[in-house]
Amino acid sequence: MMSENITAVEPQENNDVEADSDPFNIDKLIVDYDYLLYKIQDELESIQLKTLEICQKQNEIVEHGIIEEVIDGNIGMAKDLLQKCDDLEKHYDQLDAVEGIVVSFKSRLKGVITQYKKYIDTKK
Question: Which InterPro entries does the entry link to?
Answer without folding.
Answer: CNL1 (IPR034455)
